[in-house]
Amino acid sequence: NNSSRFGKWLQVIVSNGCAIKSCSVTDYLLELTRVCKQGPNERSYHVFFQMLAAGGDLGKDVVFMEPQQYNYIKHSQHNAPGIDDKQDFEMLRAALGALGFSGEVQHEIFRVAMGVLTLGNVEFCEEGEGCRIKDSTPARDAAGLVGVPFEDLQRSLVARRLKVGRDVTKALRRPMQAEHARDSLARLLYGRLFKFLVARINDVLSEGADMQGQYFGILDIAGFESFDVNSIEQLSINLSNEHLQSHFNNHIFKMELEDYEAEGIDSVATLTYQDNADIIALLDSRASVLSVLDEEVSVPKANDDTFHAKICRNFAQHARFIAPRFSGSRQFGVRHFAGNVTYTADHFLEKNVDTPPDEAPALCMASSLKVLEDIGGVIEQEIIEASAPGKRKTRTVSSSFRSSLASLMRTLSEAEPHFIRCIKPNQLKAAGSFQAPMVMDQLKCSGVFEAVRIRQSGFSSRIAFRDFLLRYRIVVPRMTARQIRQDLDGGRCQIDCVKDFCKALPDALSV
């Protein structure tokens, strides 16, 4: 009922006296597809239902209907057990107020969110070689909510600008293309509104404070996912979990084995772990599934079929890649560390494009809402930076996410990690129910059993050399203990001192 559907890294800067100086939040991979479409028995984002529950509290200039009358959420789970949308809306308003948002800015935020919801009701029909808006009422309502002229919104949906050399012309969209443009605009507005709020939160949390110094961080990210239908969102989430598992392996297993080897412990050969480096290479390298996806975005006439055919051809022999059994299928599989997952390549290219519609910056900057005007300025600046020499011409969701993920992993590698594994006891979200097979699967997938096994097979007790000598010197002959202590203080190799000490222990204990 309350999954955030995005990953976040919370970094808290502390003083030498361990007082909190400042903190910041970095978000990863907000699930924007949920804005326009949800899976069976799932809900869209809570804010939509909270606003509709608030009704007239939003103001006279906000048009609203019943949830089932909005295309974007009419198939959604309207009522969730244990959730009071109206009460939660009041809590949301209080939280925004605590962050310094004035009543006017809050009103603009909710207008943009309602505008996104209303955009889904804009439908199209064929007209000549292009299309037109079937009923102007939803489009006028949406335009009014986001503070832009109806004509500007209409033009941005039914046609797109084409730049040929120095000339700019327009290409008419067919109804389905216009629907894609509508959904793309809705996702863009929601995503940028989300980033606007995160940026404001960071401004408040770090205002006037030094962002340098010691810190502790908390990473909260979705766990391994495998549904009936898995798309690029699940592939990205599972890639992040592969990287985190590799980080886990490095600290729990690899470094443990390196310690044993360095100290000449013979039982190293009995300790093994499943290395997932080949899975990461399959998904996230210069020659990987996601690099092929990024290439296809820039290829004329490329589509999901050409992408699927290319990865099946390129990776058919890879031990971790599972090719489809039947021709004509857009499915492919990956043997993840947590188990096999079958992905469906439908809409991979469409979802991977992160280029804002050409009209989006001008549309936002023409808005009477200050919030949208600011968002439009940010988008325009990003477009300018992306068009600079040497920059990738087509920005993708995959490349942006992988770049952020690489930065996150560098940050994690510089810190001392503590791992918390969250295990769900049942699928019912109910107290007092323990589904053993489900729990067992999670323990296997998270590497908990491997960690326990290596601790059991290895040497889990860690005592500093000096502490070891001080603890047990009373049981060895006084002269031996004194000599070893002098050797240790004199800089003699600690391991040699401990070995001499251990040789004296059996005699002292009459073993």
TrEMBL record:
It comes from Zooxanthella nutricula. GO terms for molecular function: actin filament binding; ATP binding; microfilament motor activity. One of its GO terms (biological process) is actin filament organization. The keyword Nucleotide-binding applies. CDD domains: MYSc. Residues 405-427 are annotated as: Actin-binding. Keywords: Actin-binding, ATP-binding, Motor protein, Myosin, Nucleotide-binding. Coiled coil: none annotated. Belongs to the TRAFAC class myosin-kinesin ATPase superfamily. Myosin family. Residues 1-511 form the Myosin motor domain. Signal peptide: none annotated. This is Myosin motor domain-containing protein.
